[in-house]
Design goal:
- The protein is an alpha+beta fold and 93 residues long.
- Helix content is 33%, strand content 52%.
- It has a four-stranded antiparallel β-sheet.
- Strand 2 and strand 3 form a beta hairpin.
């Protein structure tokens, strides 16, 4: 298994309960074939540039260990979610 770091940027106007449910869906993907080592909730931060008239985002950073096929499913779910503004998954050395 490889070490990865995922940064998910959610819309800032989401209710906390809805954000937790969405984050749990991303956790399920990872936990099916890997393990989560750390999750940091950075809260609302100003974006570097405006995205679809949105100036802030709610940042979540997730460190985990998994196989490569987990990344494809994680990115697919982030891409089709209406509440995810941006996402990035990096392989750590």
């Amino acid at each position: 298994m490889n070490n990865y770091e995922a940064v998910l940027v959610f819309k800032p106007d989401m209710e906390e309960q809805a954000r937790e449910e969405l984050l749990n869906r991303f956790k399920e993907v990872v936990e099916n074939d890997g393990e989560i080592t750390k999750i940091d909730d950075w809260g609302n931060k100003k974006l570097a540039y405006e995205i679809d008239y949105i100036k802030e985002g709610h940042y979540i950073v997730m460190d985990f260990k998994a196989q490569g096929d987990v990344i494809k499913e994680l990115e697919r779910r982030a891409r089709i979610s209406d509440y995810v503004i941006r996402y990035l998954v990096l392989k750590k050395d």
